[in-house]
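Hey,

The postdoc asked me to send both predictions to you directly instead of through the lab channel. I've kept everything plain text so nothing gets mangled by the mail client. Protein one:
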Amino acid sequence: MTHPLHPREVFLGAQAQTSQLPVCDHYSGVEARMRKSLQLQADMIDEFGACVFDVTLDCEDGAPVGGEAEHAAMVVALVALASKKARVAVRVHPVDHAAFESDVASIAGKVADRLCHLMVPKVESLDDVVRAVAALDAVGAEELPVHVLIESPLAVHNAFDIAAHPRVQSLSFGLMDFVSAHGGAIPADAMTSKGQFAHPLVLRAKLEIAAACHAHGKVPSHCVVTEFSDVGAMTAAARHAAQQLGYSRMWSIHPAQIRPILEAFAPGEAEVDAATGIIAAAEKADWAPISVGGVLHDRASYRYFWQVLERAHQTGRQLPAEAQAYFTTALH
């Protein structure tokens, strides 16, 4: 008996995003907040039936100067306590920092199998990625994906080469470091929720990073909104990133930002219903071209509507039973 192909099998290949990640990446660097973040993640897994955001434990900005080793040990202990359903990552120090090698050895060397990825900040070039990957391989973490943080004009210039590395899964934009890297040539307003979408150099950097990611099937992750108590600003920024700039993931730095990000990146009910109908009809036609409501659809549009369903699943949307079956059925 021939089993119908799962949509993910049909759409493998060029122009298919290779990594399916939660749309929100939540950062915390203080132990009490780390514990609260992990508990919130567990609670929301129970609520949505899926892990709708990553928790990234921060060793770069979170560790006190001189206390890097102790901070890393604490992070290892927290990772080890996380449930198997959790998605937990760690941001280590940059590759040129004195604590980088020890971070990788003490964290990835001990709990790589419990991590979803390792975030490497201040990556400037492909050589930095190669160095980070070599450090991971040296401690037996050969399968651990790498996420990189693009924070300077040089890094933006090299974004396509960085995104091309096979171990790189996602590129994030570091807004505040990018602005400060210009030596005062970009005003402070460009770090605000509104200004970051208006300044040409900042906007160009965001577009370059998104384009580099999509060129190589990687996930572009949008930067923070520092006005964490302003839900309206958070929602507007997330929608702009998702709908205008091509981002499929965004950073959160406060628990109150998580749900607005999920809402902004989630497709609407009507879009989910339309996508479900088109994908179901396409599957019945063995993925040959079909007409729905007088509109022609083929694999080009099927890919788009399948991505709508995947995004709905990643954001905890309630899916129609016909669509939900795709996420409970194993690939062949």
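Protein two:
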Amino acid sequence: MKRKNITEYAFGYMNSYTAMMTAYQLMSGWSVNEGQDQLDKCHIYIIAARPSSYFIGDSLKHDGKQLSGQIAYKVAGVECRVDFADFPFELWDGATEIRCDYPFRDLWTYNSAGEQVRYLPATHVASILGARNSEEVLNHFEVLYVGQAIGQGNRSAQQRLTSHSTFQKILALSAYDTPDNEVVVFMFQFDHEQVFSSMDGRASGAITDSSNEKRLMNAIRNPPDKKQKIAMIEAGLIRYFQPHYNEIFKIKFPSTKHKTLQSCKALDVSALIVELDTSDLGLTLRSPTVTASDHHIARYDLVNLQNRMSFFNVTGITEYPGVIKTEK
């Protein structure tokens, strides 16, 4: 096994924008005024779950500007409560009072005519509290499914999920199997594209002539198009997290037989790197095979390692750990 070219390179993708909404918000037609243009550019989504949160109604106290009380959630049927205080929540737009009724998932403000004005979901408070305490339960999300929305057209993740049969299946099964959990959807935009290069001056017999540089420049000028990029990111995240409800790409990715990687094969790309960062939301993603973290890096060799050295390896250095190999 030796290095084919003195310079090898990899395509790298990292999310540039992340949004989260609950399944309820998505299926009830919830929309946002600010940021909708960003949501419309999200073509990768992750369906995930965490313990469902609710307010303890009789614990809530409001002084007109700040809210205090308790948020509760259940793990295996056992209730856990978290105290919170000094949560900013003013009575805007003519509101005169707050109410929190069964099932205590939302707190609403009402005006003097008894009309609903503004609401605060318990899940929003839980996300903030989860980043601070709650024994790191409320900000840990288990990845259940990874998908892409672009397909044959250019639909956003938000548009795709409202009529997605697998999403309906996950909602139904989760409600039965894990009734203490809530299902949420993360939507990602990937605009951070990079070409990582690796040079090994000690590689014996590696190509060093002008074709080495031309090959690299050709890849920089002719990267995979949007559809190919989204397909590779989806496949990479599926293989990395191995979510319960995914089937394709869950085990045998990357493979020399996958059409998803044909653009990389044509450009002689030797590796793929997919990064997912949720630190700006103060939460972590995990799966049965991946430890919870707010920054995940999935590394893939795209070459046959029986006759070509890995991009993540250089002469005389131990191979980089955790790299996912290509299947024949």
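Summary for protein two, as requested: The chain has eight helices and 17 strands.

Thanks,
C.
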